């Protein structure tokens, strides 16, 4: 049992306040024994509540605002709006409308865009439209830049490292501070290791859209226990723990092999938060039935409709890990992946006061950003 | 003296806590009427993290105390003797210490009044004895070279001026010191023995700390009659809310 002290939007060290400033609390809030955890950070979310980040609509801005406001109730205080493989025109129209911004009462903070594709493998395209896939063997980084138009507010790029000239591209992106993620790929372990040595630090939805683990060539999955990772670096991997994308046994294998690298993501699509039925995902149409989402008329998984807090609960249940571990997978680890753990993802002194109050079953009761309450569970029993 | 013998460390701690609570409630503190609780100075402030952290984490953060009412000797003060003299003045200004709570060192010292300290000493700088340095090594990861060798401490005389003194002694390693303090004479080599001459002393200990005492002593204080008397001090447990009515009536300003 502990008290959390907040001042001017940051977590405060009460000892310094007491002894050096001789100060005490101006306002006291009784949290009634809730768990206080750092706010969740979702680095892969394609949309929700009818909004699709890969669709260049006229009211794109209000769409992203709607999603950022709605996910507060799932405990997400920062996120990376994700764009699936799209034609260059979409990137050129949409990317300038995504701005990095702090969260608040208006919604969760935006850390930058996650561009998943189009430089991915044909064989592992998953739900991505084949006609939009591209390569960069001609002009390497320049091709990538021309496709996206601008990298100003881009935080993560997912690509397939077996593609020709990927090493240059990865090095260039890493130099610009953009996190490179491996995914939708048929790379073998050595290709994946080379990519990591060039700067890649993330794996997009482990197990999905990559070669399965093989004992003589573990492929990208082998990065979890590879001994070729440069010293001082850690490979992180996203997992959609909705109970559908990965069998709980596989989730447990990954977690036990490399617990500190596990990052929970939702990979949520426009249908998240809406009734079952048909919705769009970029250039495709998807069908939602319960927690399952498939390309309409097929059995190809396409994103998920699970919310972040559902993923945390399912992860904790499936792995039997401690509550702390489950919460860290959704807050500390994504913050470490993006190199922002000095201000986000923890409750350390001087970090941003983005936190949640959860009950013992890990249901979000209240969400706070910069020390301000931005969402509270309605207890009127509606 | 009152010698309260409880079976275990946690029972001794709980008894002492209840006693202190009752004393504070019955005193009826309020604006201008301070219940001054004295505590041993602990480690010098050369190590700002360890001592202030210790007091914050184990005491201050659990209670609603105004920081202005907290006075800790500052080992970093430019003029240490002046700091000590000022401390004595602050005690006087607050109306004197109502209750002083302390422990006992294995060498029988109270606060940092090492063997050989004057029994009428006041707050001053003391050089620490080897026993004390060894005992404090645990705050410095067991590295003896890191333990400070000097400390500011309240004097034996300062504590004797308190209206009541409570000494907590637990563990077999303190047994000999307790024996020297209460069954032998008043001696500046075992400074806690000075409290034999204080009108209101309470020693609270666990079974292990009584290992060097005479059976007769232990039987007397653990006897049925005395235990009844001792238990009356902690039961019933008073609450500030009950004495609220009486408090508002007896509001004589304590200091001018």
TrEMBL record, chain A:
Binds 1 divalent metal cation per subunit. It catalyses: N-acetyl-D-glucosamine 6-phosphate + H2O = D-glucosamine 6-phosphate + acetate. Its cofactor is a divalent metal cation. It comes from the Eukaryota. The keyword Nucleotide-binding does not apply. Substrate binds at residues 127, 208-209, 216, 245, 301-303. Pathway: Amino-sugar metabolism; N-acetylneuraminate degradation. Residues 35-374 form the Amidohydrolase-related domain. InterPro entries: Amidohydro-rel, GlcNAc_6-P_deAcase, Metal-dep_hydrolase_composite, Metal_Hydrolase. It holds the Pfam family Amidohydro_1. It is an enzyme of class 3 (hydrolase). Keywords: Carbohydrate metabolism, Hydrolase, Metal-binding. The active site is at 267 (proton donor/acceptor). Gene3D superfamilies: Metal-dependent hydrolases, Urease, subunit C, domain 1. Belongs to the metallo-dependent hydrolases superfamily. NagA family. This is N-acetylglucosamine-6-phosphate deacetylase. The gene is Amdhd2.
From TrEMBL, chain B:
Its EC number is 3.5.99.6. It catalyses: alpha-D-glucosamine 6-phosphate + H2O = beta-D-fructose 6-phosphate + NH4(+). One of its GO terms (biological process) is N-acetylglucosamine catabolic process. It comes from the Eukaryota. Keywords: Carbohydrate metabolism, Cytoplasm, Hydrolase, Isomerase, Phosphoprotein. GO terms for cellular component: cytoplasm. It is found in: Cytoplasm. Residues 43-198 form the Glucosamine/galactosamine-6-phosphate isomerase domain. Homohexamer. NCBIfam families: nagB. Belongs to the glucosamine/galactosamine-6-phosphate isomerase family. This is Glucosamine-6-phosphate isomerase. The lineage of its organism: Eukaryota, Metazoa, Chordata, Craniata, Vertebrata.
């Amino acid at each position: 049992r502990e008290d959390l002290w907040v001042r001017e939007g940051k977590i405060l060290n009460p000892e310094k306040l007491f002894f050096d400033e001789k100060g005490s609390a101006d306002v006291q809030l009784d949290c009634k024994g809730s768990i206080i955890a750092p706010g969740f950070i979702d680095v892969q979310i394609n949309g929700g509540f009818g909004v699709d980040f890969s669709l260049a609509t006229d009211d794109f801005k209000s769409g992203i605002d709607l999603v950022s406001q709605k996910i507060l109730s799932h405990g997400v205080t920062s996120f990376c709006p994700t764009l699936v493989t799209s034609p260059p025109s979409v990137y050129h129209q949409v990317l300038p409308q995504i701005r990095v911004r702090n969260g608040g009462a208006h919604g969760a903070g935006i850390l930058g865009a996650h561009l998943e594709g189009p430089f991915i493998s044909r064989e592992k395209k998953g739900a991505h439209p084949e006609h939009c896939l591209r390569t960069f063997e001609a002009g390497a980084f320049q091709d990538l830049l021309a496709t996206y138009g601008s990298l100003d507010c881009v935080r993560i790029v997912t690509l397939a490292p077996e593609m020709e000239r990927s090493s240059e591209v990865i090095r260039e992106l890493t130099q610009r501070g953009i996190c490179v993620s491996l995914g939708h790929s048929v790379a073998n372990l050595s290709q994946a290791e080379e990519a990591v040595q060039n700067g890649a630090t993330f794996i997009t939805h482990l197990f999905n859209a990559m070669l399965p683990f093989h004992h003589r060539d573990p492929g990208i999955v082998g990065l979890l226990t590879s001994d070729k990772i440069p010293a001082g670096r850690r490979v992180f991997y996203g997992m959609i723990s909705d109970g559908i994308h990965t069998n709980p046994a596989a989730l447990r294998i990954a977690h036990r092999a490399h617990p500190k690298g596990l990052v929970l993501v939702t990979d949520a699509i426009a249908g998240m938060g809406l009734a079952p039925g048909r919705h769009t995902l970029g250039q495709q149409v998807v069908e939602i039935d319960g927690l399952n989402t498939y390309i309409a008329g097929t059995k190809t998984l396409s994103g998920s409709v699970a919310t972040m807090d559902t993923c945390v609960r399912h992860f904790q249940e499936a792995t039997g890990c401690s509550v702390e571990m489950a919460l860290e997978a959704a807050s500390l680890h994504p913050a470490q992946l993006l190199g922002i753990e000095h201000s986000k993802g923890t409750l350390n002194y001087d970090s941003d006061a983005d936190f949640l109050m959860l009950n013992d079953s890990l249901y979000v009761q209240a969400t706070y950003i910069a020390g301000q309450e931005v969402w509270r569970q309605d207890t009127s029993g509606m | 003296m009152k010698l309260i013998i409880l079976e275990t460390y946690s029972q001794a701690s709980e008894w002492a806590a209840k006693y202190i609570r009752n004393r504070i409630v019955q005193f009826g503190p309020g604006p201008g009427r301070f219940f001054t609780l004295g505590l041993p100075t602990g480690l010098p402030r050369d190590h700002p993290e360890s001592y202030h952290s210790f007091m914050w984490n184990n005491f201050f953060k659990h209670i609603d105390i105004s920081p202005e009412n907290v006075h800790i000797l500052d080992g970093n003060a430019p003029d240490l003797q002046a700091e000590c003299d000022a401390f004595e003045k602050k005690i006087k200004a607050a109306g004197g210490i109502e209750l002083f709570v302390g422990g006992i060192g294995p060498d029988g010292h109270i606060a940092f009044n090492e063997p050989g300290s004057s029994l009428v000493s006041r707050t001053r700088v003391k050089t620490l004895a080897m026993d004390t340095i060894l005992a404090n090594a645990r705050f410095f990861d067991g590295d003896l070279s890191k333990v400070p060798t000097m400390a500011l401490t309240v004097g034996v005389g300062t504590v004797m001026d308190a209206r009541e003194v409570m000494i907590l002694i637990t563990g077999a390693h303190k047994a000999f010191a307790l024996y020297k303090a209460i069954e032998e004479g008043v001696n500046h080599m075992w400074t806690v023995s000075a409290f034999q001459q204080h009108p209101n002393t309470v020693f609270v200990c666990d079974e292990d700390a009584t290992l060097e005492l005479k059976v007769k002593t232990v039987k007397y204080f653990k006897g049925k009659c005395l235990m009844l008397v001792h238990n009356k001090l902690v039961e019933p447990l008073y609450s500030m809310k009950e004495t609220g009515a009486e408090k508002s009536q007896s509001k004589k300003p304590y200091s001018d």
